[in-house]
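Quick one: structure tokens for this chain, please?
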Amino acid sequence: MLDARNLTLTRNRRPVLTDITLTARPGEVTALIGPNGAGKSTLLAALTGDLRPDSGSIHLNGDDLATLPPRALAARRAVLTQTTEVAFPFTVAELICLGVEASPGPADPALIDRLLTEVDLPGMAERPYHALSGGEAQRVHFARILAQARRATTPQGPVWLFLDEPVSSLDIAHQLLVMRRARRFATEGGGVLAVLHDLNLTAMVADRVVLLAQGRCLAAGPPAEVLTDALLSEAYRCPIRTCRSPASGPWLLPQMAGG
């Protein structure tokens, strides 16, 4: 389990996270939502070990995150950041190999081609990375972290995917493809924590939702409990109305947000 308690983090003398407590469980997709500047990416960076909070504790699979060396962290979690700068003229295959090398255990020679097929980029292993469109590049990086976390569970416990806006550059079909693949990873026993902006996609894929506003946790729980008119309107500072159906739970239409 991922367990964070009373996290506080200040950047440039400004509080970014204040007394954040949350849990995420393997076998589930946990979504972090909230308006721009709410602290979602900063929280994700703290939960992955990339940022050290000023106070509070984070335990991943029972171990204090602050005590884990980089190699141990790489074996337990893979991170997809919002943007990834690639300075060298890598091919797609070479970039995905970076994920393979960060993963423990023997490599599967067919892994790269299989992952490219899974992210709908078959036959593109030798294509220059810098010749890709934005959406193609985002899916290559998703394949890279899947290469790193190619097993959802290990003898040491579940493996985690941390995804920061994983569908921001994708068309609707590929948004669904990526999130369904993340769901499959959770179904296989891994943990998934994703920053999402699309509230309908959140309602569709998340088992648990954490709603942030102004660096604080406003609500956490199942989508039906968090995606409510009152909580979303408070967080996003505009009137929001949700619809509900017994089959699909909460959903929103654009014209239902506003005055």
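The chain has nine helices and 14 strands.
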